[in-house]
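User: I've been trying to design a sequence by hand for this structure and keep getting stuck. Would you show me what you'd pick, starting by listing the structure so we're on the same page?

Assistant: Good idea, let's start from the same input. This is the structure you sent:
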């Protein structure tokens, strides 16, 4: 039996990992839902004679696809547990002109995610490393990838708790699952033997998936924080050598957020 017009219109390929497809460009699905109240539905247009049979079916399929895409974005952003939802466009590159804006905007294309590469954002406090990391993570969610954001100390504490209640493997699998994992405030202090071992297992479990790391120290200063140089080399060789290194040099933006400080249009 020949396929119906609707089956020809609605069947679309799925992304790998059964993820939702991207909503072209910067994912306008959510905005489309808000605008839907001001646009006549396909049913109204069909009754008015504006749509033929095939056009009506196509419009229904497109509406349903937009709804599912917008719902998927919302679901992935919620699951990521970002501290703030932001975009690269929200960052004020003029405030610290030495920050490589072109390189960061290129990362926003997410080619590094497709290639299974990582990103290391390092520099002094307050220059916006965490904001850029979350903006890249949010962009990934809008493009159909899963993401997770966490302070590195909280991830290590979570894995440590797994050793106590025998849920370590399940917790490790949970952190290994997202396409993009953001480790904020990495290398703040020396790692214990157990923490170093847990990091090694996490990094090896996530082979082929992207990490986004923010740190005050450059990667060359991380090695001395590990108790075992062999473990340090095993971890960092898998991360540092497959990462885009972004040095974010400049002054802290946080003084602008003090009560009574002059307001600005964009933050970092």
């Amino acid at each position: 039996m020949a396929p119906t017009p609707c089956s020809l219109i609605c069947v679309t390929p799925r992304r790998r990992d059964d993820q939702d497809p991207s909503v072209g460009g910067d994912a306008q699905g959510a905005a489309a839902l808000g605008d839907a109240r001001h646009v006549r539905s396909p049913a109204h247009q069909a009754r008015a004679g504006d749509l033929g049979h095939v056009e009506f079916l196509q419009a229904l399929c497109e509406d349903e696809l937009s709804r599912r895409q917008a719902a998927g974005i919302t679901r992935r952003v919620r699951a990521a547990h970002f501290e703030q939802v932001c975009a690269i466009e929200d960052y004020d590159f003029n405030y610290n002109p030495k920050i490589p804006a072109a390189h960061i905007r290129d990362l926003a294309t997410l080619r590094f995610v497709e290639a299974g590469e990582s990103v290391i954002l390092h520099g002094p406090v307050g220059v916006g490393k965490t904001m850029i990391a979350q903006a890249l993570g949010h962009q990934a969610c809008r493009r159909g990838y899963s993401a997770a954001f966490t302070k590195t100390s909280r991830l290590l504490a979570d894995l440590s708790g797994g050793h106590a209640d025998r849920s370590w493997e399940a917790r490790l699998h949970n952190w290994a699952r997202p396409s993009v994992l953001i480790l904020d405030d990495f290398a703040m202090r020396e790692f214990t033997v157990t923490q170093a071992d847990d990091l090694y297992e996490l990094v090896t479990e996530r082979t082929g998936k992207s990490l986004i790391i923010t740190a005050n120290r450059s990667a060359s200063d991380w090695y001395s924080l590990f108790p075992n140089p062999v473990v340090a080399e095993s971890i960092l060789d898998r991360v540092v050598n497959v990462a885009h290194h972004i040095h974010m040099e400049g002054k802290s933006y946080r003084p602008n957020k003090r009560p009574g400080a002059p307001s600005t249009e964009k933050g970092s």
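That's my pick for every position. To get oriented when you compare it with your attempt: The first strand starts at residue 118 and ends at 122. The chain has two domains: 25-80, 88-257.
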